[in-house]
Design a protein that fits this description.
The protein is an alpha/beta fold. It is 33% helix and 20% strand. It has a single domain (3-195, 237-254), classed as Vaccinia Virus protein VP39 (Rossmann fold, 3-Layer(aba) Sandwich). The protein contains 9 helices and 8 strands.
Length: 255
């Protein structure tokens, strides 16, 4: 695969493209579209629930999620410590109610200054997750909500492994472990799971029926997945409660 296959394509004039390193997901990288849409689905779900609110998108990365939240929120601050991600986000996403700042998770913000704190796919990266959650509780105004996601170790890591081979992850969680972590800080915690829907669910069923063998035998693997991956949308994922062992990711809604 060409070297530039993992660099963002078609960026607006003056916006430096980012390179996919595995630390964060990116839009505009065709090979990454599955992971981008998987994260985008959660941002859109949260966006529908922060209408008119003051939102902090902590560890915002490239900035696409902060931009989604700003469609409905009164104001959004996207914060990331990485200088390249911050500069890219600042230049690419421009709304009157959106701004980006560089900062560390543990140090940013004034107590009680946000109605919602969003922290997606990052708690597995931090050394002291309990301290981070306590900081988020401090940042929330009365009645505020923290939205926190993390991958499910049962579906990300090999069977029986304590974690995946992602070098950026310090710990990965089962549903009950993640809920217990959040309940150490927040009195009300609801954990939902992200699952495949629509064509991704059909693809799951096809794999169970032997599709892997068929596409390899017919020599269709590359052409099929080039088209299939590019066509994945955020609507091909769904959030729901219930049994969560088979979830892709967990979303904790904490109050």
């Amino acid at each position: 695969m060409p070297v530039d296959a993992y660099v963002q394509r078609d960026q607006p004039p003056g916006v430096p493209p980012l390179e996919l390193t595995g630390e964060r997901t990116l839009p505009d990288v065709p090979a990454e579209n599955y992971w981008y849409r998987r994260h985008l689905a959660v941002y859109e779900w949260i966006g529908a629930r922060v209408l008119g609110q003051r939102v902090l998108d902590m560890a915002c990365g490239e900035g696409y999620g902060s931009d989604v939240l700003a469609r409905s929120a009164a104001s959004v601050v996207g914060v990331d410590a990485n200088p390249e991600a911050f500069e890219h986000a600042r230049l690419r996403y421009r709304r009157e109610n959106l701004r980006f700042e560089r900062g560390m998770v543990e140090l940013y913000g004034e107590p009680g200054s946000f109605d919602a704190v969003v922290f997606l796919q990052t708690i597995e990266h931090v050394q002291d997750p309990s301290a981070v959650l306590e900081r988020f509780r401090e940042l929330l105004a009365d009645g505020g909500t923290a939205y926190i996601t993390t991958p499910n170790v049962l579906t990300l890591a090999p069977a029986g492994a304590a974690k995946s081979d992602n070098p950026w992850h310090l710990r990965e969680y089962r549903a009950e472990e993640f809920e217990a972590l959040c309940r150490m800080t927040f009195s009300q915690v609801e954990v939902l799971g992200l699952f495949h829907a629509r064509k991704l669910r059909l693809h799951e069923l096809a794999l169970k029926l032997g599709w892997d063998t068929v596409h390899k035998r017919l020599g269709l693997t590359g052409p099929f997945y080039d088209r299939f991956t590019a066509a994945i949308a955020s609507s091909d994922f769904t959030l729901r409660g219930g049994a969560l062992d088979g979830a892709l990711d967990f979303l904790a809604v904490c109050r």
